[in-house]
Amino acid sequence: MALMEQPICLIENRETGDLVVNPEAEKILSQINQPVVVVAIVGKYRTGKSYLMNKLAGKSNGFALGATIQSKTKGIWMWCLPHPKKPGYTLVLLDTEGLGDVEKGDSTNDAWIFSLAVLLSSTMVFNSLGTIDQNAMEQLNYVTELTERIQVTSKKATNDDDDDDGSSEMKRFFPSFIWCVRDFNLELKVNGADITEDQYLQNSLKLKKGKDIICLNCRVLIIYIKDEQHHCKKIWQEILLGILSLEAILLLEGILLK
């Protein structure tokens, strides 16, 4: 495939709320005759997702950046590059429209974009700022809507086996999940003892009485304010070396993964 100098819009988000595939992007994808690794980033609007994706691509420019309070990225943008670690593979980076944009005022549209990012990617990065707190968890409410929008088995197949809720099939389609916590400036300690990033995640998401919690394999990565360049490089290595999906458990409400 020809090298893409700049990203292109893959999914256009129209003012009507319709999500439409860009024929030019579809043509580019159809010309790829190699295995692909697809990395998508999602998260609240105006939190630097596009900046991070440019860093992951090893470029200073690419995905559009904005310096105002308005959301810059609309829809889903795609950038196809040669995979830097796997010869013969194509790396596809997907930058998604920010969630929770007050100008849009439609969480349903957000959920559809999130769902598409899940289904299109092999690795999904959830981008947030500060710490893993209640507000950060509330930003993941969109995940609970996935069960209403994603069906991977027919109703007939599901009815044939009452014990099969589609979970095993969904595992085949769901990507590895990285929670990227940026601008983190606290010490990773609990009761005076050092903890790992994954332990911090698990400690933040302890089971609560009365909650129906199901597990999803994931990693959490911390980006410190004072050393963002180094940690962007760390994320890049984590993603490309494929060591991000087996060590930690993210606990989410209502998602069909067991």
TrEMBL record:
Q: Which Gene3D superfamilies match?
A: P-loop containing nucleotide triphosphate hydrolases
List the residue ranges forming a coiled coil, or say none.
none
Gene Ontology MF terms: GTP binding; GTPase activity
> Which superkingdom heads the taxonomic lineage of this protein's source?
Eukaryota
Which Pfam families does this entry report, sorted A to Z? GBP (PF02263)
The GB1/RHD3-type G domain covers 33-258
What are the alphabetically sorted keywords of the record?
Answer: GTP-binding, Nucleotide-binding
SUPFAM superfamilies (UniProt xref): P-loop containing nucleoside triphosphate hydrolases
Family, according to the entry, reads as follows: Belongs to the TRAFAC class dynamin-like GTPase superfamily. GB1/RHD3 GTPase family.
Q: What is this protein called?
A: GB1/RHD3-type G domain-containing protein
